[in-house]
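Subject: for your reference before the review

Hello V.,

The reviewers asked for a structural picture of the protein, and I figured it would be easier to keep everything in one thread rather than splitting it across files. Below is the amino acid sequence we used in the manuscript, unchanged from the supplementary table.
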Amino acid sequence: MVPSLLLTLFALHLLKEKGAPASSMRLSKTKLSFCLVSKFIYFAAVAYSVFLPLKLGTMWFYVGLPITLVGLAGTIIVLVNWANTPAGKPVTRGLYRYSRHPMYVTAVLLLLGVSIASASWVFLLFPIIVGVGAVYFIKMEEAQCIGHYGHAYREYMNRTPRWIGIPKSEERD
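And here is what came back from the structure prediction:
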């Protein structure tokens, strides 16, 4: 799971390089604390996953490995989609065409796959916590995106599912 940690650090570098929207700087202390705690939990899960013994040769491993790989590949694709979007425009291409928040979807898949491949019921708490946290965090994130991108993001919201699905229109961005 070291690649996941490296990808997350790369994403943070891209965020700093692209510049966060001004509206993201106006978080209350409670919301900012929640965001930091949820990110810490994700980093802790990724770091902890390095030490989990995989259940090689078992059904758990063969079920969990593809889920982990889909989550890891999805994370890479999401980062590439995000990095190739011009600054000042919402990300609407690639996996963002099928989900407004594919980074959360792929993170939960990655952690879920690791918990299954290692048959760790304790580690299963991580994707649950990250998933539940994402439900709360997404509402705040979408409000910030509306404030920053305005009508363009509202149109994107109207045609793209929150989690995953088929876009409501065949319009290409």
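For the response letter, the relevant points are probably these. The chain has one domain: 2-10+30-159. The two ends are 33 Å apart (CA to CA).

Happy to draft the paragraph if you're swamped.

O.
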